[in-house]
Specification:
Oligomer: homodimer
CATH superfamily of the largest domain in chain A: SPOUT methyltransferase, trefoil knot domain
Shape of chain A: elongated
Structural class of chain A: alpha/beta
Helix content of chain A: 25-40%
Number of domains of chain A: 2
CATH architecture of the largest domain in chain A: 3-Layer(aba) Sandwich
Number of helices of chain A: 9
Largest interface: A-B, 36 and 36 residues
């Protein structure tokens, strides 16, 4: 049995403003909740009789019926468990430095952001720097699309230009751009920052100026009338794959 | 000015049953509509004063206000133009044989299917075979996610097992599977069929039996506790990239 006040509170976390105020976010489903519980304490767990939970710690656990869960869930098909986690001030994963990391410059679509976090996790990239106008990683749609990878990847919102200005002048900053060089043939370093841009406009001009290694994912066969571009999550995957393949 | 009957008809095309009955589908936005108009005739175009259209042929054109467009559009933010196209009995693109093609075995998410069609287009893969239970390529969400690539890629719904039984026994059928071999190190042929499976369950057992080249996209570093899997569109992109990179 869950109180009306709790339902209202959980549902209010769909809004970024409330998430930032309360410093809490919602995750759903045994996979996503289970992965997060391995690395952080939940405040509150709402579940049906079905899932067994490990690492619940001292979280408040509320047992509900499927119908009650439907009232709090953000999913069309609720997945038996939902939990409220804290948004930490300090990241739960420390980036290995020097290392390979990602920078997202204005990625807008929550599905793309979640998928990129999952890709970073797969390819052992611990840290993602996001421009302030990138979608919020704690948006329920992003959390779900990460499939639990949010537990293993740091997401930090920062001024990308200011960040890049703290790097040594020769620190490799990669970006995929239409005037870039064939990624299959370019030398790729073990460390560096890979910048990915907005879905419609790509990398913003001031950040593009900081990219000192311009890459291009060639289409096939070259020069064919084809898609104008790849989706940003797809381009991220192919780029990260190319870096890791060579190591 | 658009009639109530036309609004009702266009909106009814959101349902697969009606699309199959009428053999028509809806595309939206200057990019997607423009790309489709290059290769097929629209039946009907609904547009605001903004977009210029080329290749409209003898399509009926209805000029509307932004408010009227909002009534017919499937998008949250309508993009000035919407068109109704025929679903052709015969594909508008003839597959080059022998060639490299894709087979989708139960891909469910419209966004994933649309993204995969866009990837195929980028990598010059003309033909996608879909199992009957794969999402419908003419679903408005799929059409939008293709970003116009539906104009250049054939999508054929068929019994995949029966299709594979028409191939010579040594015809290369690739699939990414957990017991596959490192894709970076395996020989990849110039022609063949790349099978991708369902989001939750992967390739179905009867199709898995037909895969004679099992591949694995390694995570990095190998053996690290990481994401369990890659999203199906991401795995498709990395696999197609690997085939094309070597050619």
């Amino acid at each position: 049995m869950i109180s009306k006040a709790k339902i209202k509170f959980i549902r209010s976390l769909e809004q970024k403003k409330i998430r930032m105020q309360e410093r809490m976010f919602v995750a759903e489903g045994p996979k996503v909740v289970g992965d997060l519980l391995k690395v952080m304490h939940a405040k509150l767990i709402v579940k049906t009789a079905k899932p067994k939970i490990e690492n619940a710690g001292d979280a408040e656990i509320i047992d509900v019926t499927e119908e009650e869960l439907r009232k709090v869930s953000f999913l069309q098909h609720p997945q038996d468990i939902l939990a409220v986690f804290p948004i930490l001030e300090e990241p739960n994963v420390k980036p290995a430095i020097p290392s390979l990391s990602l920078a997202l410059d204005g990625v807008q679509d929550p599905g793309n952001l979640g998928t990129i976090i999952r890709i970073a996790d797969w390819f052992g990239i611990d840290h993602i720097y996001c421009s302030i106008d990138t979608a919020d990683a704690y948006n329920p749609k992003v959390v779900q699309a990460t499939m639990g990878s949010l537990a293993r990847v740091n997401v930090e919102y920062t001024d990308l230009k200011a960040l890049m200005e703290t790097f040594p002048a020769d620190y490799p900053i990669y970006g995929t751009l239409l005037d870039g060089k064939n990624i299959y043939k370019e030398p790729l370093t073990k460390e560096g920052l890979i910048v990915m841009g907005n879905e419609g406009n790509g990398i913003s001009p001031e950040i593009r100026n900081k990219v000192n290694h311009k890459l291009l994912i060639p289409n096939y066969p070259e020069g064919r009338d084809t898609a104008d571009s790849l989706n940003v999550a797809i381009a991220t995957a192919i780029t990260c794959n190319e870096f890791r393949r060579r190591q």
